[in-house]
Amino acid sequence: MHISKVRIQNFRLLKDTTLDLVGDSNSQLSLLIGKNNSGKTSFIVLFENFLKSKRFFYDDFPMSLRKKILEICDETDVYSLAIRLSLKIEYGEEDNLQNISDFIVDLDPMCNTVRIAFEATVDKSKLLKDLEVVTKRKDEFIKKNLSDYIQIGYYIFDSYSDFEAEHRSNLIKKEASDVNNLINLKVIQANRSVTSSDASPQDRRILSHLTTRFYNSKVKMSHDDLYDINSSIIDADIQLSANYKTFFEPFLENAKSFLALTALNVVSDLQSKEVMASHSKITYGKDDTELPEHLNGLGYMNILYLLLNIEIEKADFEETGRDINILFIEEPEAHTHPQLQYIFIEQISKILNGIKGLQTFISTHSAHIVKKCNFKNIRYFQIPKGEENVDIRNFYIELQGRYADEENAEIDRVEKKHFKFLNQYLSIESSELFFAEKIIFIEGASEKMLLPYFINQFDEDDMGDEDDTALTSQNISILEVGANAKAFKHFLDFLEIKTLIITDLDTTVQQIKKGENGKKNSVSYPACPAKTGTHTSNSTLRHYYNSPEFEDESFPAWMEKLKNHDHDDPSPLIKIAYQNIEENGYQGRSFEEAFVSANMDKIGSNLEDVDGLKNKDNFDECKSDPDQFVGDMLDSKGKSSFASSLLYLALSKEDLKWNIPSYIKEGLKWIAK
């Protein structure tokens, strides 16, 4: 038995949002990810409000509905304003239907779902009656007191239209106790009370307090499991009672003479709960190196806190025996380094294994946790541009669908290959893309080393527009993807992340060698200077700008448009920066040529200190032609050395500042906005 779909209406940014758990029926774990303020915490809070606190406030309603609430009158349809949480629950033949039977209304034996809704509505008649005596600032009265006029109802429904005013007779009302018998909710919140050595003495014992809670939960569940502890306490009671008798006997004899009591005794009455609470603590270390818990690192404290809380919640899940058990864990990465995050997420499924009907939801901002999870379990929270409602995307299924083309087998094969690469890349290389505000993809090691320098220089020299935020102050992920940027197109569209792709023109020229003795002509495409290029070997440019096939006679015309930068950008959120701009009357085909063209004089002034070069004596012959410089002087195996020495010189010489190639500068201006 499990929840397969959640729909939320009219709660904060979750105006009409659906979480689809299709594909998770065999998984205990769902990962809730997304940028800040994308609704993850609100999603969790809504469950708490309906199943725990039973309280809602004015600020819980979406901004778009608040005016209607403030102007409430007899004609107001309060059901259209209601905060609603709807659950679709699926069950099977192997499930015990005792608790859920109260919610089964379809007698069709083939039906295996029930739909339960929690609804918070404004008690219109009560609020309007009380507003009659409010003479001033009725809107302020509503804002401050609305929670007192919100009533919560529980319903079985068949269709979402049942919640409309004219169809509400189709709803079947249930009691809170019916729901509580079916669903058990636990939340381990992000604002955990894990503190360091500068905390107050009481706060320093948070883990010790948790061990007491854990012990007490076990006391309720199984007395036999605690036999040894209880036996020790009974033995201590006997010994302490004997010692008390000896110590208090003179006093008790005097007391009996005054009070005419025949028997007055002081006996030990140790309680295991009190012993745990007041006379136990967590330490770490051994023997004479033992230290109290608050001197441990915050990362270890956080993990221990999580594990103890999980064990406590597990005990409650097992004791209550509900059919639907929901556990939310908020931001387990707090204070922990990446390796601990890896270990936690790898072990969490094992820890939670075996609890009947358990579904665990972990919200996180950690790329390390995402990296170690099955991408099929990711649910991505997103507010589409221009909208005021959160979408929760089934990342794997929805994205996989974009990388498919059933009408064209060849395209379908290529796109599926791209999706496979993307899946592996995000698992192995970088899951931080999920949390980036902006992305810059670069092609090789030279750009990877020098781009941070270019970005700092861009900011220092105020190359952006006046209102632009400094690039170094923006959340921009820079990733080296080689020639595989083409594989990210649907991913970038899916996440709606502004992305700059820095790549090379990579011009080639078509050469046809006539076949001899009746053989077919052979065609090759060797590298050549940009000015003579008829083709490009860059698959990223061909993919994003929809090039014709190499052999197509229209390719040279497409190539001329590419060299002149006459193609439209792939989308408003994706820009490709390549050597489309002449530098000192020269157009390069690669980063190195464009950089040399922009910095030839400075390279000449520092020639002896620039690594990765050969034939330095030929500089005077090559300095007027970047193509010749790269061809004759740049060691094909020394590009990394060339780039690293350029960076070293820029950082070590106060009077040296390299010029940013124009195409990169143009790209940085675009991504800065």
UniProtKB/TrEMBL annotation:
<protein>
    <submittedName>
        <fullName>ATP-dependent endonuclease</fullName>
    </submittedName>
</protein>
<keyword id="KW-0378">Hydrolase</keyword>
<dbReference type="Pfam" id="PF20469">
    <property type="entry name" value="OLD-like_TOPRIM"/>
</dbReference>
<dbReference type="Pfam" id="PF13175">
    <property type="entry name" value="AAA_15"/>
</dbReference>
<keyword id="KW-0255">Endonuclease</keyword>
<dbReference type="InterPro" id="IPR041685">
    <property type="entry name" value="AAA_GajA/Old/RecF-like"/>
</dbReference>
<dbReference type="InterPro" id="IPR051396">
    <property type="entry name" value="Bact_Antivir_Def_Nuclease"/>
</dbReference>
<feature type="domain" description="OLD protein-like TOPRIM">
    <location>
        <begin position="434"/>
        <end position="506"/>
    </location>
</feature>
<feature type="domain" description="Endonuclease GajA/Old nuclease/RecF-like AAA">
    <location>
        <begin position="1"/>
        <end position="370"/>
    </location>
</feature>
<dbReference type="GO" id="GO:0004519">
    <property type="term" value="F:endonuclease activity"/>
</dbReference>
<keyword id="KW-0540">Nuclease</keyword>
<dbReference type="InterPro" id="IPR034139">
    <property type="entry name" value="TOPRIM_OLD"/>
</dbReference>
<dbReference type="InterPro" id="IPR027417">
    <property type="entry name" value="P-loop_NTPase"/>
</dbReference>
